[in-house]
Design brief:
Blueprint (H helix, E strand, L loop, with lengths): L1 E3 L3 E4 L2 E5 L2 E3 L2 E4 L3 E4 L2 E5 L2 E3 L2 E4 L3 E4 L3 E3 L1
Parallel strand pairs: 1-5, 2-6, 3-7, 4-8, 5-9, 6-10, 7-11
């Protein structure tokens, strides 16, 4: 199990995420994606069975911008 972002960890970046499948990822924060000080745009992606203590699919922290 990852501590942050089971599939992806973004720090100080800008990301456009589209048409991806995130399935069965595990982390303490952000089962699929963890974002810190970043801008994340998600469109058309599928989140299925991702597990986390905080933010089952996406955890956006510390001045992150999240557009879905």
């Amino acid at each position: 199990m990852s501590l942050e972002g089971g599939a992806a960890y973004y720090l100080l970046t800008t990301v456009e995420d589209s048409e991806n499948i995130y399935k069965a990822n595990y982390a303490h924060k952000g089962g699929a994606i963890y974002s810190q000080y970043s801008t994340l745009t998600v469109s058309g992606s599928t989140f299925d069975s991702n597990v986390a203590s905080e933010g089952g699919a996406i955890y956006a922290q510390a001045s992150s911008y999240l557009y879905i």
